[in-house]
Amino acid sequence: MTHTPAPSLDQVFMALADPTRRAILAMLLEDDMAVTDVAHPFDMSLAAISKHLGILAAAGLISQEKRGRVKWCQLEPDALRAASIWMQAFGQFEAVNLDAFERFLEQELQTPLPDA
Predict the structure, then answer these.
(1) Is residue 71 a part of any domain in this protein?
(2) Under 8 Å between Cβ of 49 and 3
(3) What proportion of the chain, given as a percentage, has pLDDT over 70?
(4) For the chain, what is the domain count?
(5) I want to staple 39 with a disulfide (CB 3.0 to 4.6 A). Which of 26, 28, 49, 109 is the partner?
(6) CATH, residue 94
């Protein structure tokens, strides 16, 4: 039996960086899905979806198995564990209150900031 190394944090974050791949993961939260069902809501080719699925699989975020003639995808939630642990280290910092920060900048600059 060959040991496959665990995907790196870089692979996981690279896979998560794409909105299509994040949407696929959200869909797979509900249940396992056939590749064709995964592809259905997206305006792209089956080949493009297959590339996205390959990246998610290489990062360990999903697994794929053939059942008969249909390829199924399954979420692998444990793959996010290392990324989650890494991100929790930053939980010690408080979230920035952007409204308070904007008021502070207006006071400091003595000129109102334009509305966004």
Answers:
(1) yes
(2) no
(3) 78
(4) 1
(5) 49
(6) 1.10.10.10
Do 28 and 37 touch, CB atoms closer than 8 A? no
Identify which of 61, 70, 69 has the alpha carbon closest to the alpha carbon of residue 33: 70
Give DSSP secondary structure letters for 25-91: HHHHHH--EEHHHHHTTSSS-HHHHHHHHHHHHHTTSEEEEEETTEEEEEE-GGGGHHHHHHHHGGG
Q: How confident is the model over 81-98, as pLDDT tens digits?
A: 888 888 887 776 666 666
Domain hosting residue 92, numbered range: 9-109
Sequence length of the chain is: 116
Residue 116 lies in a domain: no
Distance CA 59, CA 79 (A): 8
Q: Is 0.85 surpassed by the pTM of this model? A: no
Tokens of 76: 């692998």
Q: Which two tokens stand for residue 47?
A: 């080949």
